[in-house]
Write a structure and sequence with these properties.
The protein has 20 helices and 26 strands. The protein is of the alpha+beta class and 634 residues long. The protein folds into 4 domains: 40 residues; 166 residues, Alpha-Beta Complex (Penicillin-binding protein 2a (Domain 2)), CATH 3.90.1310; 334 residues, Beta-lactamase (3-Layer(aba) Sandwich); 58 residues, Trypsin Inhibitor V, Chain A, CATH 3.30.10. The strands form 8 sheets. Strands 2, 3, 4, 5, 8, 16 and 17 form a 7-stranded mixed β-sheet that branches. Strands 10-9-21-20-19 form a 5-stranded antiparallel β-sheet, sandwiched between helices. A 3-stranded antiparallel β-sheet has the order 1-6-7. Helix 3 crosses helix 4, helix 12 packs antiparallel against helix 17 and helix 13 packs across helix 17. The longest helix has 40 residues.
């Protein structure tokens, strides 16, 4: 019996020993599993969490890509700056540091002092984008840390304000090309890290870690900075001279669709963005050339002319009669010259900008056919330009158009367009091809081209005879007796327009006009289309031929000189304007008209009175033989 008990006890001990071993093995396996999970499966995550506890990081802003003009001239670049941080736990003398920071960075002392003594935070930003010299001086103080940053700089200040746009203080695109191509320009930020203890204080002689930033791509535009400077100089002069609400202008490459120059006034200095007045900033940042619409007036007559010629419904020598007004379905439509132009050919009607003749042509075409051409030329459609917020203009739905509406559209009323649309329309009609307006030429990084604009063209359904006739009529429209008089010696064509504005109730706003001029060069096969719009000239002069046309002349003249473009006929360079405009204000209409005719000038009258009360241009202006002058009667 005692032997059995002994055997039982031994067997029981063995079972306990085995159980203990199994428990130890299980615990060991679980421990190995936990170690495997922590080190292999979740190791990186835990390492990151640990790093967050003992590493303090400061951002390193990437270098934003440059914006270049078509010739490689920098329009927007970046310079190295520094963001200044303070780690209160490392500060030795808070009062001295607060005094230094507030003095050197022009900051409020109390605010700075609160930051340099706030040990609850590991680090606090003191100021962004500090220049290198100042930043390095501050880095000598214990507790001051620097993070490399970049600041956007615009070498030409207020040039191309709405085209380039601007960035936030942390270099995010906010408007213009800076916004549109932000994902290419911005690059990737890096980090600078330092080791700290549990209290967030930097460990002496510890290792630092550096993750470099990656610079953004550069973009090359179609802009020619020389043309841009000329455009803005003359637009600014017109803006001041006519005390206008605003002035816009575009130089457009009719062959490629590239925008060579584009400007809106008023504007602001891109290196001193007025962020304290957000409504003003928003207004002046808006690119009016593609966003704001206006009633084009007589410049729109080119569309009616092209459609009628292309359909064989008229020819340059066809005769018309203008009695100063015409009736369409019982409604009277007045010509701008209320006394009428009398008998005149189509060529003469285009030059005189006779409303009645273009009413006639629009009605000949009819709604269906006219709208086919509106669609062909892109009226009511966005051009596809790489500018945010583009408008497609305003066109009445075809099914709602009455004959009287069509009549008004025929001479540029009851329709609204953007300046870029009109420049694009003239490019299409004068070349016979359609192109997509664009500012981007290419995107490149590390000397490698990532993208290049194709500049593709599509042929329009326009007869070559139509194109040639249009270009000839545009030339004759602004030149006298077949001579190059728009700009002496140069083959330039063009058309001017004057349109009334409307108030918020849709009624004509008294005394408010938009004066415009569209010019083409060379007229026989245009390379460049120039459009100038003066919004609400307020010095009593508002005709496009008097307000906007001289601006166009000065712009092209300066471009020819700057680019050393040779004249088409050097012999005509001496054919300068040599007729002095006399003062005919106060004279009877018949006497004033006779005097001007003797001088070789053609008078157009605005009003039906008997006495001249104003004249355009003013007395003393040098004019070419055969030029048109405007006399306003009582």
């Amino acid at each position: 019996m005692g032997g059995f008990k002994t055997f039982y006890n031994i067997h029981n001990l063995q079972r306990r020993f085995i159980a203990i071993i199994l428990i130890v093995v299980i615990l060991f396996v679980m421990l190995l599993g936990r170690v495997f999970y922590l080190q292999i499966i979740n190791g990186k995550n835990l390492q990151t969490l640990a790093s967050d506890e003992w590493l303090r990081d400061l951002p390193l802003s990437s270098k934003r890509g440059e914006i270049l003009d078509a010739n490689g001239v920098s329009l927007a670049t970046t310079i190295t700056t520094y963001d200044v941080y303070v780690r209160a736990r490392n500060v030795k003398d808070a009062v001295d540091l607060a005094n230094t920071l507030s003095a050197k960075l022009n900051l409020d002392y109390n605010n700075v002092y609160n930051k340099v003594t706030n040990k609850k935070l590991s680090e606090v930003l003191i100021k962004m984008q500090v220049d290198e010299k100042t930043a390095l001086e501050l880095a000598e103080f214990k507790g001051i840390y620097l993070s490399q940053n970049v600041a956007r700089v615009y070498p030409y200040s207020s040039l191309l304000t709405q085209v380039l746009g601007y960035c936030t203080i942390d270099n995010v695109g906010q408007a213009g090309l800076e916004l549109y191509y932000d994902k290419f320009l911005k690059g990737l930020d890096g980090k600078s890290l330092t080791q700290t203890n549990a209290q967030g204080k930097e460990i002496d002689n510890s290792l630092g870690y550096y993750i470099p930033s990656v610079a953004g791509a550069d973009i090359t535009t179609t802009i020619d900075v020389q043309m841009q400077a000329i455009l803005e100089k003359e637009l600014n002069a017109a803006y001041l001279e006519h005390k206008a609400l605003g002035v816009t202008g575009i130089i457009y490459d009719a062959q490629s669709g590239g925008i060579k120059a584009m400007s809106c006034l008023p504007s602001f200095n891109l290196n001193a963005v007025p962020r304290d007045n957000l409504s003003q900033l928003q207004q002046m940042s808006k690119n009016s050339t593609v966003i704001d619409v206006y009633e084009p007036g007589s410049t729109f007559k080119l569309i009616t002319l092209a459609a009628a010629l292309n359909e064989g419904l008229t020819n340059p020598d066809e005769h018309f009669y203008c009695g100063g007004r015409t009736s369409v379905d019982g409604e009277t439509i007045k010509c701008w010259k209320t006394t009428g132009h009398g008998s005149l050919t189509l060529t003469e009607a285009f030059k005189a900008s006779c409303n009645c003749v273009f009413v006639n042509l629009a009605l000949r075409l009819g709604v269906e056919k006219y709208y086919e051409y509106l669609n062909l030329f892109g009226i009511g459609q966005k051009t596809g330009v790489d500018i945010a917020g583009e408008s497609g203009g305003i066109v009445m739905p075809k099914e709602q158009v009455r004959r009287v509406d069509l009549a008004r559209i025929g001479f540029g009323h009851a329709v609204a367009v953007t300046p870029l649309q009109m420049a694009n329309v003239y490019a299409k009609i004068t070349s016979g091809y359609t192109t997509t307006p664009h500012l981007l030429s290419s995107i490149q990084m590390d000397s490698k081209t990532l993208y290049k604009t194709s500049n593709s063209k599509t042929k329009l359904n326009l007869k070559q005879s139509t194109i040639e006739t249009i270009n000839t009529m545009l030339f004759n429209n602004v030149n006298s007796e077949g001579k190059y008089t728009f700009i002496s010696g140069y083959d330039v064509g063009g058309k001017t327009g004057t349109a009334q504005k409307y108030d918020e109730n849709g009624l004509i706003a008294t005394g408010k006009y938009i004066s415009s001029c569209i010019a083409t060069y060379p007229a026989k096969n245009p390379q460049y289309i120039l459009i100038v719009c003066v919004n609400e000239p307020s010095n009593g002069v508002y005709y496009g031929g008097v307000v906007a046309k001289p601006v166009g002349q000065k712009i092209f003249k300066s471009i020819f000189e700057t680019k050393a473009i040779s004249p088409n006929d050097p012999s005509q360079l001496e054919n300068l304007p040599n007729i002095d405009m006399p003062n005919v204000v106060g004279l009877p209409v018949a006497e004033a008209s006779g005097w001007l005719k003797q001088l070789g000038l053609n008078a157009e009258f605005d009003g039906e009175g008997e006495i001249v009360i104003a004249q355009l241009p003013p007395a003393g202006t040098k004019l070419y033989f055969g030029e048109i002058v405007f006399l306003i009667t009582n």
